[in-house]
Write a structure and sequence with these properties.
- The chain is built from ten helices and five strands.
- With 209 residues, the chain is α/β, with parallel strands linked by helices.
- It has a single domain, classed as P-loop containing nucleotide triphosphate hydrolases (Rossmann fold, 3-Layer(aba) Sandwich).
- The model has no long low-confidence stretch (mean pLDDT 94).
- It binds 2'-deoxycytidine-5'-monophosphate (DC).
- 2'-deoxycytidine-5'-monophosphate binds next to helix 2, helix 4 and helix 9.
- The site of 2'-deoxycytidine-5'-monophosphate has 15 residues, from helix 2, helix 4 and helix 9.
Length: 209
């Protein structure tokens, strides 16, 4: 990559597919900045749970809001998915994400609509997914380990409800961009998923596909 140029990697997919880990590791490998865009919606969801209006919260969002405690809780995840349905909330968050994407030195953004709406011109696009059961199992283990009182069936039901809301909304639904590379992590270890993702981005950099 020539010095001073921007290279955007867009990584989309449903919850608990391994997107977060893959994005972090791809960013680390290439020395790119990383933005987990789910945190923007989670931070707005957190403010709504605290009694604020969703649009006002999105317009007033500051970078430090992304570091608040408790953004990973199931309660906040649900609130995030609900505010993410609103077109006005989504529009309030576009400029920040696009600015981040075009920074010099390269950027990885992960979310639901990065390759389709936020960065349709991204140089590399990945769609990271896995079966419902595999994703629910991973999320269940993660939540149990962090002390949440959850059952597998409850986690699976929550995940399906969130997927349906994220994929079914009219404004920027979760979707695979036609030019994205599909990474199905159902049968992959974390290391395999990361290696496949890095290889796919490298192929785009060198113009192989
Ligand atoms: O990736 P996550 O689980 O942290 O995302 C939380 C919610 O935010 C998710 O249910 C949908 C929403 N979201 C979105 O609508 N668009 C994005 N680019 C990222 C997240």
């Amino acid at each position: 990559m020539p010095a001073g140029s921007a290279f955007t990697v867009a990584i989309d997919g449903p919850a608990a597919a391994g997107k977060g880990t893959v994005s972090k590791e791809v960013a680390r490998h290439f020395g790119f900045a990383h933005l987990d865009t789910g945190l923007l919606y989670r931070a707005v969801g957190r403010r709504v749970l605290d009694g604020e209006d969703a649009l006002a919260a999105a317009q007033a969002l500051r970078p430090e809001d992304l570091h608040r405690d408790g953004l990973r809780s199931p309660e906040v995840a649900s609130a995030a998915s609900e505010v993410a349905v609103r077109g006005d909330v989504r529009r309030a968050l576009v400029a920040f994400q696009q600015g981040f994407a075009r920074q010099e030195g390269g950027a990885v953004l992960d979310g639901r609509d990065i390759g389709t709406v936020i960065c349709p011109g991204a140089e590399a696009k990945l769609y990271v997914t896995a079966s419902d059961e595999v994703r629910a199992r991973r999320r269940f283990i993660e939540l149990q380990a962090t002390g949440h009182d959850v059952t597998f069936d409850g986690v699976l039901a929550d995940l399906k409800a969130r997927d349906a809301r994220d994929s079914g909304r009219t404004d920027a639904p979760l979707a695979m961009a036609p030019d994205a590379v599909l990474i199905d992590t159902s049968e992959m270890s974390i290391d395999e998923a990361v290696a496949a993702s890095i290889a796919a981005v490298e192929a785009r950099m060198t113009g192989e596909r």
